[in-house]
Design a protein that fits this description.
The protein is built from four helices and no strands. The protein is elongated and about 55 Å long. The protein has one domain: Transmembrane di-heme cytochromes, Chain C (Fumarate Reductase Cytochrome B subunit), CATH 1.20.950. It starts with 11 loop residues before the first helix and ends in a 9-residue tail after the last helix.
């Protein structure tokens, strides 16, 4: 057990998935907050950015989960106590669930509000996605509420994840953080 020589390391592909996800998640969360404060025509541009980030993250997270099935992550070292193993597993499962559900809820809510990813809000600004439902405000509002709720839960889960990494690195000094660097 060493802070610089961890027990087991994630694959290069897993590390790329992880570190590419980080700025995309931050930008998606920030753009989602900004949208709520914009009252002029530029709001549609922020929707286009936010929705494109969300869909890109969904694709990335699904690819990441597929990679985890092909190349499972290294097991936590034996010296990590059972309660920390359980907390780690729970946090990772909740993060993955939120990262899949968040863009799906947003995508369905946008469609239910009558704004499919077409035209001004096309994916990446130029890829129109098919409209799959008519506007349905009765469905859109609860979907948007859930999307917003998860938008506030995600930073809490991320903070727990980062705090755990810092705890392992600075206090336990067990090399867990270095497995992802």
């Amino acid at each position: 057990m060493s802070i610089t020589r961890p027990d087991g390391s994630y694959s290069a592909v897993a590390k790329i998935f992880h570190w590419v996800s980080v700025p995309l998640i931050v930008l998606a969360l920030l753009s989602g907050v900004v949208i709520g404060h914009i009252k002029d025509a530029s709001k549609m541009g922020f929707y286009a950015i936010h929705e494109s980030l969300g869909l890109t993250l969904l694709i990335l997270v699904l690819a990441r989960l597929a990679w985890r099935r092909i190349s499972p992550p290294p097991a936590l070292p034996e010296h990590v106590p059972a309660r920390l193993r359980k907390a780690s597993a729970a946090t990772h499962h909740m993060l993955y669930a939120a990262l899949v559900l968040q863009p799906v809820l947003g995508f369905f809510a946008s469609n239910a509000f009558g704004f499919p990813m077409q035209g001004a809000t096309a994916y990446l600004g130029f890829i129109d996605l098919p409209k799959f439902m008519n506007a349905w405000e009765g469905l859109a509002k609860p979907l948007m509420w859930l999307h917003g709720w998860l938008g506030w839960l995600l930073p809490v889960l991320i903070a727990a994840h980062v705090a755990a990494a810092i705890y392992h690195h600075a206090i336990r000094r067990d090399g867990t953080l270095m497995r992802m660097l």
